[in-house]
Specification:
Elements (H helix, E strand, L loop, with lengths): L1 H46 L3 H14 L3 H21 L1
Helix pairs in contact: 1-3
Length: about 90
């Protein structure tokens, strides 16, 4: 009997810890989403896209499931193109 009680207590304690860890995981995932969104917004603002370019980027993100790294690459390309255009002027 004592062995069974001990196991049952361990199960209860483990379930409690599991619930806490699941809640922590949900909080961390929400935090990650907020930070990813903030980075995307900053990248878009820094890219200085015109309306048609912005629409193309959004459509590409929706269609291809493109990630943040691809968006950041697009903004770098856009900035480089702007720099080259201003150097040619």
């Amino acid at each position: 009997m004592k062995g069974l009680k001990k196991v049952m207590l361990d199960i209860e304690r483990t379930n409690g810890q599991l619930a806490q860890l699941q809640e922590r995981l949900r909080d961390l995932e929400a935090q990650r989403t907020q930070l990813e969104n903030a980075e995307m917004i900053a990248a878009i603002r820094n890219a200085n896209f015109d309306a048609s370019e912005m629409l193309a980027v959004i459509q590409s993100l929706k269609k291809n499931g493109t990630g943040l790294s691809d968006l950041l690459a697009l903004t770098t390309v856009s900035k480089n193109e702007e720099s080259e255009e201003s150097n040619h002027d």
